Structures are given as C-alpha cells and as structure tokens.
Amino acid sequence: MPQNRSDKPLLEARDLHLRFGGVIAAAGINLKVYPGEFLAIIGPNGAGKSTFLNICTGYLRPERGQVFLEGREITGLPPRTIANMGVARAFQIPQLFTDKTVEENLLLALAAREGFWRWLPLRAKDRVEEGQRLLRALGLEPFASFAVAETPEGVRKLLDVGMALALRPKLLLLDEPTSGVSSEEKLHVMDTLVQALRAQGVTAVFVEHDMDVVRRYADRVAVWAEGKIMVEGEPGEVLKDPQVLATVVGVEE
Amino acid sequence: MNPLLALFDGLVYGSLLFLVAVGLTLVFGVLRILNVAHGSFYALGAYTAVILGLWAERALGSGWLSFPALLLAPVLVGGILGPLIERLVLRWAYVRPEVLQLLITFSLFLVLEDLQKLVFGVQPYFLDRPLQLLGAVEIGGVPYTRYQFLLVLVALLVLFGLRFLLRATPMGKILVAVVADREMAQALGVNVGRVYAVAFSLGVGLAALGGALASPTVTIAPGLGAEVIVLSFAVVAVGGLGQVEGAALGALLIGLGRSLAVYWLPELDVLVPYLVMVLVLLFRPVGLFGTVEVRRL
Amino acid sequence: MRTIWGIALVALVSVALAQRPAEIRLGIVTFLSGPASVFGIPAKNAADLLIDQWNRAGGVSGVRIRPIVVDEAGGAERQVAEFRRLVLDEKVDLVIGYISSADCLAVAPVAEELRVPTILFDCGTPQIFEERRYTYVFRTAAHAALDSVAAALYVLKINPDLKTIAGINQDYAWGRDSWELFKAAIIALKPDVRVVAELWPRLYAGEYSTEISRLLALRPDVVHSSLWGGDLVSFVRQGLGRGLFGRSRVVLTAGEHMLQELGRTLPSGVIIGARGDHWFLHPRTKDDPAHKAFVEEYRRRFGRYPVYPSYHMSQALLAMRSAYERALRDTGGRWPTREEFARAMVGLEIKTFTGTVRIREDHQAVEDALYGTTAQTPQYPFAILERMLLLPKDLVMPPVGVKSLDWVRTLRPEVLRQVPDPR
Amino acid sequence: MRWPLLLLALLVLGILPLFLPWLGFVFTLALAKGLAALGIALLLRAGLVSFGHGLFFGAGAYAVAFALREPGRGSQEATLLLLLALVVGLVLGFLVGLFVSRYRGIFFAMLNLAFSMVFFALLAKFYHWTGGTDGLRVPTPTVMGLVLERNVFGEVLFYASLALVIGLSLLLHTFLETPVGKALGAIQTNEVRLEYLGIPVQRVILLTYLLSAGLAGLGGGLTALAVGHVVPELAYWVASGEFVYIAILGGIGAVPGPLLGALVYELIRTFAFKYLAYSWQLLLGTTMLLVIFFAPGGIWMLLGERRQRVASK
Description:
The complex is a heterotetramer. Chain B is mostly helical. The mean pLDDT of chain B is about 85. Chain B is globular and about 60 Å long. Chain B has helices spanning about 5-30, 40-60, 65-95, 100-120, 130-135, 145-170, 170-180, 180-185, 190-215, 225-240, 245-265, 270-285; strands at about 135-140, 140-145. Chain C is built from 16 helices and 15 strands. In chain C, helix 2 packs across helix 13 (about 310-330), helix 3 runs parallel beside helix 4 and helix 13 (about 310-330) packs across helix 14 (about 340-345). Chain D is mainly α. Chain D contains 13 helices and two strands. The longest helix of chain D is centred in the middle third of the chain and has 28 residues, at about 150-175. Classes of the chains: A alpha/beta, B mainly alpha, C alpha/beta, D mainly alpha. At the B-D interface, helix 4, helix 10 and helix 12 of B face helix 5, helix 10 and helix 12 of D.
C-alpha cells in the first residue's frame, strides 16, 4: 500500500521520554504513522514497545514529549477519551469480559461505540446483525455462544481484536497479535485480521516478533532499541540491515 | 487545661486502639481478608483473661498472677481458636470473591457472639487486680494509673516486636513475601497454607491480647465485641490496610483526635473515629501507608 | 335457708368462673441479650418468680398466667414486628415490657392500633405521655425527671454551698434527658452553681480515661452521671484507680442496679439513685413481710438481691393484678374486656414491695424517690446505702400535662425547705 | 422452571396476609429490605460491596418522618412521601457516589461504612431535631387523600409495596438488559477494557450507585410508614450488613433473588426470635455460612438449574 509523505501523519510521537526505575522505556522517541499504512514495531524484549502503545492510548503518561492525533495533542488524556477519538487497542494478553459469551463481548464493544446509554436492550436487532457480520468477518461465528473462558487462545485473540474493530477506529494499536497462537493458526489469524482492517481502511500499528509476519503484512517497520528508533523503512531493506539483525533478531538463518 | 494531659491521654487511648486493631491489619495484609469477627476474638481474649485471673487469684492466692493471665489468654485463644477456625472456615474462603469473604467473617462474628454468650453467660465480669496493684501516679496535678503507662509500653513492644518479626525472622520474611505477591511466594515453594494458618492465629492472638490488656479497665459483658469492630476498621483504614506501622499511626491519630475532642469539643467525641476515617480516605483512599495495586496489562 | 344461700353462692361463683378465660396470656418483652440484658435478666427473674407464686396460688382472680417471653433485642423496627406477632399470632391479652425508650415510643402507637393493654415497666423517656394521650398504654415506673430532680435535691441537701458541677453521660436520649433535667434542677434551686464540663462519651464506649483526666483536672464539687450496666462499672473502676471519688462527689442516678456487681471496690460517699424508691433495705419497708418474702425468695432462686429493674417489673405485675381485681368488681364478676381493664388501670393506687404507686389520668405512674450515700459494711459484700432521703412523689414528678423541663425550671430554692434531712 | 415458581410465590405472598395478618407486616418489612438488597445486588454485580447503604435507608425513613411533621396536605400524602424518600435516596446517592465511585474493593466498602457511621452518629447526636436514639414517631399518612384506619393502612401499604416491588423489579430487569446493565458484570471482570472501549466506568458506577441509593431510600420510606417509628439504628453498619447478607442469601444472579432473600431472611429471623430466643444470631450465622459454601448462587440459583451462571473468580 504506497503512502505519500506529503499528507499529514495520522499519529505523531514527538521526543517521548519515560523511565521505570532503572529501565529506560523511551529516551527521545519520534515516530510518525501515516493514514492507511500498516506499521510494525520490532525490537528486543523489554525495549519499551508495549509502553509506547500504553502512552499513545493514555494508560501511561510520558515524563517528557507529546503525542498528536491528526495534529491535535492527546498526551495524558484518559484512555476512554482517546478511544472515543478513534484510537482502539488490542492486547498481548486478550482483555475480555470473562463473565460473558463471545458474542456479548462484541455486542458490548458495539454498544460502546453507539447507543451505550440508551434504554434499549444490548441485543437490539441492528446491533446483533452488525455483530454477526463482524463475527463472520473474523471467523468466530461458531464460537458466538461460548463462554469466553471455554474458547481456545486463537479465538480469544481474534475476539480481542474484533472488539477493537467494533469501535470502527481510525487507528488500531495491536500488541503482538499472533503471540500465543500456534504457527499454523498464525497466518490464518493475520490474513483474517488484515483483510478486515483493509476493508474498513483502518491504519494499524502492531508490535511484532515474528519476522515472517512483519515481512508479509507490514508496509513499513520501525526498529526500537534502548528507548530509541534505530531505523525506519521498508521491511525488505530494514530486515537485511546487519545491525538490525544483530540487535533485534539475533543471527537469522 | 495544659495540653500535655490531652496528648498523654491521646497516647494512652491510641495505644489501646493499636493493640486492638493491629491483629486485624496483619490478617488483611497476609490473607487479604477483612476479618469482621475480629471483635469476637477481642471479647474472647478479655473473657479468658478475666476467668484465668480470677481463678489464679482464688486457687493460687496471689493477685500478681493476674498479669501472666493477661498474657496466657491470647496464647490460648490464638493458639487454639486460630488454627481451628482457619482450618474449618477460612480454608474455603480464600478462593471466594472478596464480597463473600467479608460475609463469611460477618457470619462467623454472629456465630461467635452467641457461642460466647452460651459459654460465659450474660452477667458482666471484671478483674481490676492489675489496676490496683500498680497504683497511680500524678502528672500535672492529675493522677494516672501506672497500668496506663504499661499499656503504652506494651503497645510499643508489640509494634517493634512485629516489625522485628516481619523484617528479621525467616517466618516474618515469608509472611511479608506472601503479603507482597501470593502467587510468586507459592511458585517459590512457600507452603502458603501453613503461612495463612500462622498469620491468622497471630492475628487472632493479637486481637485476644488487645482484649486481655483492656480487660482490667473495661467490663466484659455481651456486645463487647461489636463495638470494637468498627473502631478497629477506622484505625486500620486510616493507617492503610495490611500496614502494621499504619495501624500505629491510625490509632494515634484517632486517639489524639478523641482526646482533643474531649478536652475542647466534647460534642464531637462520638464522631471523631469516623470523621478521621472519612477525611483520610477521601484524600488518600489507600490509607496513609497503603499501596495502590496497579493492574498489569 | 343455708342450703338456698349455699346453692345460690355456688351458682354465682360457677357462673362467674364459667366466664373466666382458661389463662391470661401475658407477653413479657425484656432484654435477654446484649449490654442491656443487665436490666432485662433481673426483670425477667422477678416476673418468673411472681408468676410462679401467683399461679401456685390459683393465678390472678382465679385465672393462671401464661407468660410468653420475647427478647427486646433487634431495635425498634424488630420490636414492632414482635409486638404484632405477640398480639396477632400468640393472641396475648396483655403485654408488659420495654426497657429501651426507643422501643417504648415505637410500640405504644401499635398497642393503640391493636387495642391491647400494654404496661411499660422501665423505659425512662419523659416524652411518651407528655406529647400524646393513650387509652391502652400505661407506665408503672417514674421517668428521668424523678431521678434528676431527686438527685438535685439530695445533692443540695448534702452540700448546701455547692459551687461547680460536671456531667458525664452517654451520648444518647437517656443521657441527654438525665443531664438536661439535672442541670436545670440544680440551677433552678441554686442559680449561682457553675457547670464546668458536659462530657458525652459514646454509648457502650467502655473506655473513659480521657474523660476522667478532664474531670480530675477540673475538680468539680459534684460529677453527675446516668451511666448504667457495663459502662457504669467500667467508669467507676477506671475512676477509682485514679482517685476521682476522692476529688469530687459522684452522683450515679441509676447506680443501685450495679452495687452488687461493684462489690467491695465501690468506696463510701458515692451518691446512688434507684430510679424510684427501689432498695431491698428500704428504710420504711425493709421489714414489711411481703417485701422481705420477695427479697428472700429472689435471693434463694437467683443468688443475688433484687435490683430496681426487678422492682419495676414487680410493680407492673402488681398493677396488672389490682387492675383485674378492680375491673372484676366494676363488672360485678364478669371477666373484663380489654377496654374495661384499661379503664380500671387509670387512677389505680397500689401497694408495691417498697411503697405505693399511683397511676395518674395521663397513664404515667408516680412513686417516691430514694437517694442515699454508699457505705461499706461487714454485713454485705457490697456497698449499701446510708444517709438515705425519701422524697415524696409530687416533689419530684411534674404534674399532669406539664413538660418535665418546663416544670423543673419553675422550681425555686424554697422547695429545699420542704425536703427532710437525710437520716 | 423458575418463572412459574416465581408466580406461585407471588400468589402465596399476596394471599397469605389475608389469613395471617401479622405476616403482612413482616412481609412489608421484607419487601422494604428487599428493595435495598436489590440495590446492593446491582453493585455486587460490578464487584462492589457497600457496607454503608444504611445511610440511604435511614435518610429515606427520616425524610418521611420529618415531612409528616410539617403542616399542609401535601406532606401527609403517602404517595408523595414515598416519592420524597426515593428522591432523598437519589440525591444523597449522587453526592456520596461522586466520592465512592472512584474506589474499588475493600476501600469502596470502608468508605461507604465510614459515611454511614458519620450519618448514624449525627442522627443520634442532633437530639433536638431527630429525637436522638429515641427516634421519631411516624403518624399514619393519607392514601390518595383518604384518611385510613391504622390497620387498614397497614394492609393497603402491604399491597402497595408488593405492586411497587413488582413494578421496580420489571424495570430493573429491563435495565439489566441494557448496555449499561450488561456493563456491570464487565466492571468486575475487566474494568480497564471497558475504559479502552470508551465507556466512562466511573459514570456507570455512579449511575448504578444512584439507583441503589434510591432503592434503599424508598425501602427506608416504606419501613418508616409500616413501623410508624424511625430510629438511628436503621443507618447502623449492622443494618447495612443485613442488606448484603440478604442479597447473597437470595442470590444476585437475577432480580427476584434479593427479594426472595429478604422474605427468607425475615422468616428465619421471626422463627429464630420465637423459638431460639437466646441464639438467633447463631442461626443466622450458620445459615449464611451454609449458603456461601454450598449454594454460592444463593437460594434463587438453588431453585433453578444447577449450572453456575456467575463464574467465580
């Protein structure tokens, strides 16, 4: 998906700094995300990748630096305000409502987008229909009435993402969408996911460890190490750069 | 009215409050259970201390024996009732959601109240031998019983004793570990079941100690336990749940608050514990020493 | 001739008996649990004792009494539910009960609604008959005005040049009423007296060291307190340990019921009230045969001497018995309806174990007041009363239709001259 | 299976007082407590336990008592008085809710307890207005303008309470189907995700707290009218504990749970008071322990199918 540098970035992080005790999570992060693109963030474990997502979604407040969404500053706003501005998040460990079924989790997400405070049942006709469409898109239809606790990891991962999609976000932040999913399922999950995102024209930033997934699905990749962006660019070139291979991946085959 | 008296009275009342409440905060710290039945163990400690004291005086003829009776009672109550109740009732409570744990100890309180009445009857008991033997001393023109000084001393002993136990002894370190992270401690092979039994028994023993030490001054009659519960909640909430030092500060704050009220605004006397609790909780909901548990994503 | 009269008499008696109910179902409500059981149990004991005695002698006017006892615990809401159950489910003919003022005030209107004669035997709130008129509700004991006014009169008799007073009362209605009335009485009788401290510990606080420090520092001539039960014992023992009784003269308006509990520890010189003239060594009636029998039987069965709640219960039962007898006379032998029983209660003058009680037309009883000072003697293992003062009813109780506080404020120093010296 | 059983229970509840009049009074008190327990059950669904709802119960009751002392026709009308109790509960619930809705778990419970104990102490302290621990008398109000004999009023009050409770139960049942109602369970299992979905959790809790306070206020108002007297003990922490007890006894799984819990609770208490004069607390304590350990879903769950609908943590 080519994207031209000329239009304004959808999300911009400027000079972010954050430390947890001794660990440096961000030491001057500058990153731009352009509308419609899939940006992958790779880097060694504990480098601060997830922290970046938490800062952008308002869960953590940076010590220094700002975050802009479509040019407007959103640093420090609470997660629900940022979510209502069109930024959705999916989690490395699926964050689901374990007291409800798969379908109810999705319906609650749909209700959150529209009609939450109205005195109408959650299972209103139009909402259920939209839910069915989304379940089909994610291939979760057979699991609709399952209690969340009784479903396999892959299903929970997709549901987690599905709930973020239900918000029809402008920007989706994914934290290792394929972690904990068996290798055969990995491609199936990513295909289903990317197809749904492309269909809605959603910009996505995802933290990822699996280089195949990065090569296959990312338009651009940013390498995060010791709290800085080492290098940015097309996956093809970046993943050939020996320095990247050494720090991020260890010696590839 | 020289303010020194108000401070000393506040310290004495605070010491008693600390002795009453420290067991509650210890049990919460380790077991994450707010033990509503804490008041019943306080009352049982008081009843046992008085019965032992009276028996010792009659059978062995010396009033001084009532002092060891004050210390033996908590050991008996904590040693026998603690493990028994932890095994029979609390063992099932750990897995239950928080609200059910509260209700389990609330029901336990109801059961113990009636058992106490069946065992000890309804007529009031008291044994003030310890009070009389120590006599009184005058400060700033106002006589105080030496027993009140003893209370302050014992409270300090218990505070530093617990700090030493928790920080320096192996058992204490394990207790602190379980408080910090129950799952991790279990993963490292700590027999959390046994730790719970020890911690709960220690908590029950401390409650009984509070009752025993208060017994020479108060009258032991039905309903003694109920009054102490809400008061110790206030002390523990102000100090920060699970924090022994917090309980000490909470007790001191409420103790001083009450004595200031009695000296300058007697009308506020009955409101002080709850006003202090509301004020502190509003500005520091986890209490003065409490820590906020952040949800890990 | 004789036989005709004999037959007529037998017929008359059998007719009268025929209409007698099988039993008088009597509801008795008193505290069997909680701190106030220190009043409730002695009251229940007195009821058990008298009802057994009367039933063995054929009951009241030939009808046995069947007591149904209920624990007064649970608060006003629970007691209203229990009262309804007693009346509608247990079908009681009459209820004697209620120590807590809140329960008295809550149950009285329900008694009117269900039209069941109810005798309040102990609660001390002055308001109940001052604010409203009842047809079925009576109280056979005096209220807080008696205890406070009598205390004031006694204190001023003992210490005519009294200068300063202080009060330590539980922060609830009974404590507030007692102190308000005592303060008003003292100031009305001796306007130059100064109030140095009014302390309000929590009900059931049980811990008074801070209050005692304040009283010790202020050294008031007299300390007034309406504390009762475990709180009273705790306060006395904490005060004793620090010489409070040496520095001030302490007045315990409800002290009588705890004398046996305090035993030898209570020093001499403490002023004790008995909420009426209820003292087993009553100066006038301690040798009265009925009183002596009651005290002996009570001590034999329960191992202790009767205390004022026991006497209050006995007064209620004696009033009930006299009312039945009076009503039977009025109806010419037919068993009285509840309304007839209620009418018979009004204006009743009965002899109690310690004196006499009269039930006025506002259904409030008036009785003499007894105050004394403690003295430790070899005969008894607890303090008894000496320098006793018996104050007649109308000197210590407000007349019908006058609010207690207003009446107390009308007292003048001259009243003191009508008061005999304690002997 | 449960719904026909519910209808049967309602029938019995309606008919029985005609034969046993004193039971009518006990049922009225049970329904009043049931309303408060319903409010507690709403909060329990969100994992929030309040040991302080005696504050709203007491406030509703005292509002009715104070209003009845004012001259003027409006202040004597039962329907307006109940409305007043509801409004007082809602307003106080909003004010207290602003603070407590920020806290969770034990802190939520403690803060509620502290507020209610301050209110209880104030009720007992301001003796000249509230009658202190003696409380206040609540004379019989008019109903729809009619002046009723006290016992007739008692029966009317019972059937009015029954109708009110049924109406409110249906209302609550629909509320629990709305997104906000469904979100309650989600607050307990994963509050952070709700925030990430853009839902202002604190406002959801505040609304639920408001509803529960209104229900408790209304329950207090009903109790005041039924008993005819109000005392500070209505706001004591043990009374608040009773509502939690009732909610768990009945089961918070469905709306009828707490109401059933209230009826069973009042019957146990009456039974215990009658036969176990000395150890009624023992009976209540053991009953609750048995329910918690062997029927965590409460009586309502026992009646239904065995499947544990509320997943325990």
